[in-house]
Structure formats: structure tokens, C-alpha cells
């Protein structure tokens, strides 16, 4: 085992526990018995279709003194009982799977616990949590693609991801990207170059147009066309709603800052995927996570791990209200984009892929066509009626609104926005759940009325 350079992802035992707890002495170094070694946090097959059940199957981590909440391991570095132990840790012989920790840039017990929750949530073998969603995406890309690598990606992506693929990676690493309409499977197939394309990347629900990707078909297409092509999906918009690994994807990335956090107070990300990939990303010599150091703070990991147990309840309420508002907005005559509406192009596709009981997502779009009209709508929704807040991001308990073309998609030029289908007046709404549904709807109606009155007065003048 001396040649091993990375550490296994698993549930750790206590290295300073008494011998009666399953440890044997080995030259005064506590080593876990083979029978005590953990299995990875893989969702049991019978529960794969329900992320909440997978989360509930995880072992509950208790605090140092038996508290119902786990303790926060805030240390940057860790002690060993004997000098020889450190050498064995640096060779990879002893690692976090046996509760041996070196330094929190490598592994931290609290962050690893959050990783186990994320792996259970997505039904993957392992997960590693990062300092941001972009850190998760960039680390995956840099691990899977070498210089002269190739990515095929959806033309409709979050602006930061689009900029990474369009500008940064080609300049720094000579990694190029071919952008395609992710709903045009023939175009996707033609763009994948056998033996060269490393990654097929797309968002499960595109930002901001809410186009739904056919994950099973795209995964099959990519694997059939290029045996070495990995399917990487951003699931930031649809945690709980979709389980990508079950649908055929290889890797799932998240901005945990959004729905999983739910409070818009932390920045965090995650990479969920095969154990072999995650271990390679933590390799001491070649691992992108290990060497670039996008480390999550243990206190942030603790905060997030306490929020995941009620993610399912929160997500259901986000989705329920989004569905109700989208239906009413459409009846009102608004140009609404929401996958839960039957006139959405991928409504039936999403219905066939989604985990039962979690709805169709917590975001909707109102297309005002012109940026000026979008700006007036958001002004009245925030300042006249208190329906929501003008802010980027999503997954907050209050409704958040932004005009995507001039905000979260501003990295795209006019031609790229047109290709992505982003209208200048597209207002993206992340629907919150504060107040009663009827109270918030009356606020929306009041804002629309004031906007219409203002428009009438403007036309008269």
C-alpha cells in the first residue's frame, strides 16, 4: 500500500477510541480492524428513487460528548500519537477512512460528513465538498481534461460556467469547448469526437431558460459515441427533483449555496461521482482538488449538514408554489416558462425522469421581452408590493428575481445569448415560501396592476 497516493472516502472510526471499540495496537499506533472498515455512502438500491430515504439511511454522527449534533472539527492540522504514524499517513497507508487526518486542505472530518450526505443525496459512490460551485466545476474539468482536451457543452449555461469554458480554459490549458443545443441529440452526437472528447457537460435545468436535458438519452449517446467521454451534470437547480446518477450521468456537480443551503449565507459546492474519480482528484501529485485547494471551511460544512435533513420539505414547498404561481400567471396572460406547465417543451420528459413527490422545480421565468419592461416589473414586485427581492442566486426562502440577460448571463455576448435562447426581458424567479401562498399572490397581482397603471399614464403622456 506504500505506493497509494490518495485516501479512500468512507465513514471513519475513532482512532483514539479504546481497544474495546474495535482497535488493535500496532507498534503503539491505533489501526482499525478490517471488520470495522466502512463502506462508502451509496444509496441502497431500493431507495435510489427517493433521495430523502437515502439520506435517512446514513449513520447519524454524534457530537464528541454524545450530543445529537456532531461536533465541528475546526482544526487546520491534526496530531498523531507516534512519529511513525505521520510517515504512514503521507504514503497513504493510513487515511481518513481510519480516522487519520493530516491537514484540513486534504481532508476534514466535518467536511467529509457533509460529503457522505451529498453522495447519499445523489446516489453516487462518493462526494467531496468545495468552497464554491465554480470550484467544483473547474476542478472536475481540470481533472478530466488534459492539455488539448475537448468538451461538448450545452449552449445554455450559467454565465460563469460559460466564461470558464469559452475564455479561461482555452487560454490557460488549451482545453476547447464545442457548444450545442442540448435538446438536439444529433448535434450532440456529431460534436463528440471519439477518442478526444473528455466531457459532455450540461445543466439538468438550464440557467436561465429552464430547458430540461434528457439525461438518460444524452448519457447513453455520450457513452456509446466516446467510451472515454464522461457525462457531467450541474444539478444546482433541481436537487431532490432529479437523481442524475440513477439516470446515467457519471458526475454531478452542485452549487450548494442555493437550494441545499436555503439561506443565502454561505458559498459552497460539491462534486458527486465514482470513488475512483474522487480519489484521483485528491491524489497528492495529480489531484485537482488536492493541489488547487478549493477547501470548504469545517464550520460551513457543519451548517450545511444541519440543513440537508429538511431539504426535501423545503424543496417540495418551493416547487408547489412555483407550480401554483406559474399556472396563475399563465391564466393572467403572462409569458411564463415553467417545466411543470404542460405546454413546456420538456414537461413530459421531466415528469418521466423526476423523483416522485418533489414537483417540477422551484424556478420559473416571466418573459417581458424587453429589458425595460423587465426592470419595471421587478421594481414593482420589490418596491411596491414586497412580492420578492431583486437579487441574483436562488433557493432562498424569499423569492429572488433578476433579469438574466443583464446579470447572471452577462458573460455571454449578444450572439451567445440569442443562441442560448435568453430574451433581453427574461425575468428569472426563484420562488420562496415565506408568507401564505394567497398573501404572496395578492402581492404579485398588486404589482402587475401598478405596472399597468404606470404604462397607461406613460402612453397618455
TrEMBL record:
Keyword line: Pyridoxal phosphate
InterPro entries: Cys/Met-Metab_PyrdxlP-dep_enz, PyrdxlP-dep_Trfase, PyrdxlP-dep_Trfase_major, PyrdxlP-dep_Trfase_small
Source superkingdom: Eukaryota
Named cofactor requirement(s): pyridoxal 5'-phosphate
Membrane-crossing residue ranges in chain numbering: none
Family per record: Belongs to the trans-sulfuration enzymes family.
Protein name: Methionine gamma-lyase
Gene that this polypeptide is encoded by: LOC107930180
Amino acid at each position: 500500500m506504500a505506493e497509494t497516493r490518495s485516501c479512500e472516502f468512507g465513514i471513519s472510526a475513532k482512532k483514539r477510541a479504546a481497544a474495546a471499540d474495535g482497535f488493535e495496537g500496532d507498534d503503539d499506533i491505533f489501526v482499525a480492524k478490517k471488520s470495522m472498515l466502512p463502506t462508502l455512502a451509496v444509496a441502497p438500491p431500493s431507495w435510489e428513487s427517493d433521495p430523502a430515504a437515502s439520506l435517512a439511511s446514513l449513520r447519524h454522527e454524534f457530537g464528541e460528548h454524545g450530543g445529537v449534533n456532531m461536533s465541528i472539527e475546526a482544526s487546520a492540522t491534526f496530531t498523531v500519537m507516534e512519529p511513525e504514524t505521520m510517515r504512514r499517513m503521507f504514503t497513504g497507508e493510513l487515511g481518513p477512512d481510519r480516522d487519520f487526518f493530516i491537514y484540513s486542505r486534504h481532508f476534514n472530518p466535518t467536511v467529509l460528513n457533509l460529503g457522505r450526505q451529498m453522495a447519499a443525496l445523489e446516489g453516487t459512490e462518493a462526494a467531496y465538498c468545495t468552497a464554491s460551485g465554480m470550484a467544483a466545476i473547474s476542478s472536475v474539468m481540470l481533472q478530466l481534461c488534459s492539455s488539448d482536451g475537448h468538451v461538448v457543452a450545452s449552449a445554455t449555461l450559467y454565465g460563469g460556467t460559460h466564461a470558464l469554458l469559452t475564455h479561461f480554459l482555452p487560454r490557460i490549458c488549451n482545453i476547447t469547448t464545442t457548444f450545442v443545443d442540448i435538446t438536439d441529440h444529433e448535434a450532440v452526437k456529431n460534436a463528440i469526437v471519439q477518442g478526444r472528447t473528455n466531457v459532455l457537460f450540461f445543466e439538468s435545468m438550464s440557467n436561465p431558460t429552464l430547458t430540461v436535458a434528457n439525461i438518460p438519452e444524452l448519457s447513453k449517446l455520450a457513452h456509446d459515441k466516446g467510451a472515454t467521454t464522461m457525462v457531467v451534470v450541474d444539478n444546482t437547480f433541481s436537487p431532490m427533483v432529479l437523481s442524475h446518477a440513477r439516470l446515467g450521468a457519471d458526475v454531478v456537480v452542485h452549487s450548494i449555496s442555493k437550494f441545499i443551503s436555503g439561506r443565502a449565507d454561505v458559498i459552497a459546492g460539491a462534486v458527486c461521482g465514482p470513488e475512483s474519480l474522487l480519489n484521483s482528484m485528491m491524489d497528492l501529485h495529480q489531484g485537482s482538488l488536492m493541489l488547487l485547494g478549493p477547501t470548504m471551511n469545517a464550520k460551513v460544512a457543519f451548517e450545511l449538514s444541519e440543513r440537508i435533513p429538511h431539504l426535501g420539505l423545503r424543496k417540495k414547498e418551493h416547487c408547489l408554489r412555483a407550480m401554483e404561481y406559474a399556472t396563475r400567471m399563465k391564466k393572467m396572460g403572462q409569458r411564463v416558462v415553467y417545466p411543470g406547465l404542460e405546454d413546456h417543451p420538456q414537461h413530459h420528459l421531466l415528469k418521466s425522469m423526476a423523483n416522485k413527490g418533489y414537483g417540477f422545480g422551484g424556478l420559473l421565468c416571466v418573459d417581458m421581452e424587453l429589458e425595460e419592461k423587465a426592470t419595471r416589473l421587478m421594481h414593482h414586485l420589490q418596491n411596491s408590493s414586497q412580492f420578492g427581492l431583486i437579487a441574483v442566486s436562488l433557493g432562498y426562502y424569499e423569492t429572488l428575481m433578476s433579469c438574466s440577460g443583464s446579470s447572471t448571463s452577462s458573460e455571454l455576448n449578444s450572439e451567445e445569448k440569442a443562441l442560448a435562447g435568453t430574451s433581453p426581458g427574461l425575468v428569472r424567479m426563484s420562488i420562496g415560501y415565506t408568507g401564505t401562498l394567497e398573501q404572496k399572490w395578492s402581492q404579485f397581482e398588486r404589482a402587475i396592476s401598478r405596472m399597468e397603471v404606470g404604462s397607461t399614464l406613460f402612453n397618455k403622456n
